[in-house]
């Protein structure tokens, strides 16, 4: 029997996580990278980053995950971190409709900072993954159906398969969403 592997290709991917304050960006990253969850809210100031090693198509990929501030007053710092990003995770809260509506602004803001021409083909094809978080709340409180998210995604040209619903609290869908992001970014890079 031959031993598996040998040298794998190595790659560094940069991912940026965006969305309104409180939707759970930091909680999703802690769940994905550290396997932990805290109910305590501490606003992200500017941006933080964490790393995660994953295997994609037999390449060893280090994903640098940039967690940005949703609060307006901390954001001017954050946009500097959009440069060089290979993919972007846009997060909304399924219990607050405005957080989905605001993804249009987050996406525009991201593309404006990431590309010199936000209308270029490169910008148009940029890989986004869309995440509706906090599905563990009372279903009667839910304000955003999957169909609402898919409608918005179709309107900006993002495929339905790039949509995920998650609960950082209950660890539902989190690994799947981040894995999708790594796979997309890796294949495009
Ligand atoms: P900013 O840093 O201000 O942009 O906010 P954020 O998007 O990073 O939000 P954060 O991850 O800090 O989460 C905000 C609050 O929501 C915290 O109290 C979390 O514990 C809570 N939270 C995050 N994800 C979930 C979830 O899936 N379910 C529940 N029930 N609470 C969550
Ligand atoms: Mg945060």
TrEMBL record:
Stated name of the protein: Ras-related protein Rab-7b
GO molecular function: GTP binding; GTPase activity
InterPro entries: P-loop_NTPase (IPR027417), Small_GTP-bd (IPR005225), Small_GTPase (IPR001806)
Keywords annotated in UniProt: GTP-binding, Lipoprotein, Nucleotide-binding, Prenylation, Protein transport, Transport
Similarity comment: family membership: Belongs to the small GTPase superfamily. Rab family.
GO biological process, one term: regulation of immune system process
Gene Ontology cellular-component annotations: endocytic vesicle; late endosome; lysosome
Classification via PANTHER family: RAB FAMILY (PTHR47981), RAS-RELATED PROTEIN RAB-7A (PTHR47981:SF20)
Native source organism of the sequence: Thecamonas trahens ATCC 50062
Entry-linked NCBIfam families: small_GTP
Source species, domain of life: Eukaryota
